[in-house]
Request: fold
Amino acid sequence: MCITQQYIINSVNPTDWDIIAIQELWLDRLSNARVSEYWHILYPSSCLLIDSAVLRSILLINTNISTDAYTQLPILSNDIMATRFSGEFGHLSLFNIYNNCTHNVSTIMLRSEFVTSTKNVRDSGQSSTNTSNTQQHSQQLS
Reply:
């Protein structure tokens, strides 16, 4: 697995790609992934709270994208890495979800996050359009 991950990181041209999503990644003895100087690595927000030996999802963000343009979404799962990009055209949330074939914990966690997001949008007084879109996504996961 290490060879495949190294091949991707070293062969993908950063002028052609902005984001790389990696699953079932190889970690070194310090539980870190390896990347080149062209990428910022984002680990799941729970990786220090949950056994990182089971870390299965990361995002690599091109260093040409300002770190001010995105924020990590706090999801308590090492199987889900999520970030939200913000810009002049609005917001985009990007999820890298590892789905284990033996259970649906990631799906349950994601459903919980959408329900929480719906409540937060409603509580912050944002438009009902945003709330109804989030509710539709939440229902689709059910």
Q: What stands out?
A: The chain has a mean pLDDT of 76. The domain at 1-98 is CATH 3.60.10.10 (Deoxyribonuclease I; Chain A).
